[in-house]
Design brief:
Length: about 475
């Protein structure tokens, strides 16, 4: 029988008093207070957000070490600790609930304490000896929650876009373009108001979706430019109190090199700390994409509906049984999941908008909510689009016979007759066809409105569904 391990503690002190901290953990007293104060959701900080905070601390430790603001030995130990965390170590030490103290002070101190305690170990010292390496005086030198957290949201957003959403969009666009080429000669009925419309090509439906996603990619990329202007160096209120004169530029340059992005100090540090507009802008662009993803996912479900009583113009890949009671049923689950995620993204965007307008004077204290919602939106939407591409879009098959039958049977074909027989005659032909079941061709010939030869030219489905040539 294994003997129970004895838990040992170290004593740490902050401005409120002493607390016993388990000796094994790397966070400290301020983190423990936050854990006790905020047992709210059980949701811990997102990995990408942790990366962003650690990258900032690495950059600032390098800058402060080079500028002589902290001892070089301590600077190097902080950098080594940061590199270990970025490589995947100590990730379980970031424990503060996402719903926490205003502005993100609790999470910020969690980061500072973990880095300080690991740096102490690297230097051969014991965790908790903050006289040698202090979370506040060394790891956080020249910094404040008020400039670090808005910078972390910027860096986290850029990382999430680069790692998740942009690659996913590129994959989806490629998959849709491939299907557009594969289905380019398949004629189907268009539909407007969910009623029959003029013929179109199935391939152009997919090409349109690819274009829609391409334009969203461009919008989001443009909006993300707002995230490259940093308020880091503003310190507590944007004045740069307790920072070296060269710190602001030096830290931005180092951070830019670490993430390979063209970062720069904001033209006005106080403004960069107060306004959440860049996050609202990016979130709005993400929401815009989500709205069209819902539209596309609903189109996929409609076009796959059936198999006997729906459109069934395409076959989505069956990826799992669709019913607990109906054998042989397969549902468009990837498209359904896509819509659900997109609705959540829209909700996150609404919360970001509310939080962004809730700042007062020199600070917006709602930043923890904005940080979680923005990065989470980017990542779940990116993961969703990636899954939709690999599990659905890439394996779609066309039901060409079904598509052609709908196209040939559509009353909207009379639209092509307007120039030859006039709108009213065309409407009368459509009405008679609907009432009698006769084909449009038969009724036009019976009424002597056109010759068979001319009618065949006008009702050429391939010609009717061809896209116009546009100079791009």
């Amino acid at each position: 029988m294994t003997e129970p391990q004895t838990v040992t503690y170290r004593t740490e002190r902050d401005s409120m008093g002493d607390k016993q901290i388990p000796s094994t953990v790397y966070y400290g007293i301020q983190t423990l207070r936050a854990v006790e104060n905020f047992p709210i959701s059980g949701i811990k900080p997102l990995p990408t957000y942790i990366d962003a905070c650690i990258l900032i601390k690495k950059a600032t430790a390098i800058a402060n070490g080079e500028l002589g603001c902290i001892p070089e030995e301590i600077s190097q130990a902080i950098v080594q600790a940061a590199d270990e965390i970025l490589a995947g170590k100590l990730r379980d030490q970031f424990v503060v609930d996402v719903y926490q103290a205003g502005a993100g002070t609790s999470h910020h101190m969690n980061v500072n304490e973990v880095l300080a305690n690991r740096a102490l170990e690297i230097l051969g010292d014991e965790k908790g000896n903050y006289k040698r390496v202090s979370p506040n005086d060394h790891v956080n030198y020249g910094q404040s929650t008020n400039d670090v957290i808005p910078t972390a949201i910027r860096i986290g957003g850029l990382l999430a876009l680069e790692r998740t959403l942009f690659p996913a969009l590129s994959n989806a666009i490629a998959a849709l373009d491939n299907k557009a080429e594969e289905f380019k000669d398949i004629v189907k009925s268009g539909r407007t108001h969910l009623q029959d419309a003029v013929p179109i090509r199935l391939g152009e439906t997919f090409r349109a979706w690819a274009q829609i996603l391409t334009e969203h990619y461009n919008r989001i990329e443009l909006a993300s430019g707002d995230l490259t202007s940093l308020g880091l160096g503003g310190s507590a209120a944007g004045t740069g109190l307790n920072t070296h004169p060269q710190y602001c530029d030096r830290a931005a340059k180092i951070l830019s090199q670490l993430i390979d992005k063209p970062l720069k100090p904001a033209p006005h540090l106080m403004a960069a700390m107060q306004s959440m507009a860049p996050f609202v802008n990016v979130s709005g662009a993400i929401r815009n994409l989500a709205q069209d993803c819902v539209k596309i996912s609903h189109d996929l479900r409609l076009m796959d509906s059936g198999p006997k009583t729906g459109f069934k113009e395409i076959q989505l890949p069956p990826v799992q049984p669709g019913s607990s009671i109906m054998p042989g049923k397969y549902n468009p689950v990837m498209a359904e999941m896509t819509s659900m995620v997109c609705f959540q993204v829209m909700g996150y965007d609404s919360a970001i908008g509310l939080a962004a307008q809730a700042g007062q004077l020199e600070l917006n204290v709602m930043m923890p909510l904005i940080a979680y919602n923005l990065i989470q939106s980017i990542e779940i939407l990116g993961n969703t689009i990636n899954a939709l591409s690999s599990k659905c879009l890439e394996g779609i098959e066309a039901k060409s016979d079904r598509c052609l039958a709908y196209a040939e049977g559509s009353l909207a074909l009379v639209t092509a007759l307007n120039p030859d027989i006039g709108y009213l005659n065309a409407a009368a032909v459509a009405k008679e066809s609907l009432e009698t079941g006769k084909s449009l061709r038969q009724i036009v010939l019976e009424r002597g409105l056109m010759s068979a030869e001319d009618l065949a030219k006008v009702l050429d489905l391939d010609k009717m569904s061809a896209m116009p040539e546009i100079d791009r």
